[in-house]
Amino acid sequence: MRRILPSLAVLGALLCGAASPPPGWTSPTIPGYGAIHVWPQATDRPDPAHTYKALFVLDSADSAGTGLNQALLQVARAVNEFGAAGVPLAHLRFRVVIKGGATPIVLNDATFQARFHKPNPNRDLIARLEKAGVTFLVCGNALFGFQANPAQLAPGIGVALSALSSEIIAADQGYAIIQ
Length: 179
What we know:
Layout (H helix, E strand, L loop, with lengths): L3 H12 L36 E7 L11 H15 L7 E7 L10 H8 L6 H9 L3 E5 H6 L11 E4 L2 H10 L3 E3 L1
Parallel strand pairs: 1-2, 1-5, 2-3, 3-4
């Protein structure tokens, strides 16, 4: 059991978006977030010539108490994994749709500060993901249910008719749906 505990502590730090990953871990495309370890002998690697499409559905609030949305960190991990395999960012069609308890992560700084009395801890990660080409939508129903409006969203965040319609549309367009 003692051997497992340090490994879990390292994993916890990595999932919380540690700025500098411990030795053996790397975050090559989204620095400081979603660290990965690349085994040279690993198989089932992405093909750098192929274009990959995925819709990540984020619906839960932070579960680790760090303020960072853990599912958002998984998006960073996916970008890092494909980048480490040599897939150019232009070959990644990654989209994120936010709904339910995750809705606050896309609020602009002023709105988040007014509601939660602290800065939005997810803004830096979202900005880095956007810079890597990841696009973000928030469910219009969740936004209204959260008593917010499009003017209260961070720049670059679109409003979807609904998360459900976004999932159906993405599936119809051949996207992998990641929940």
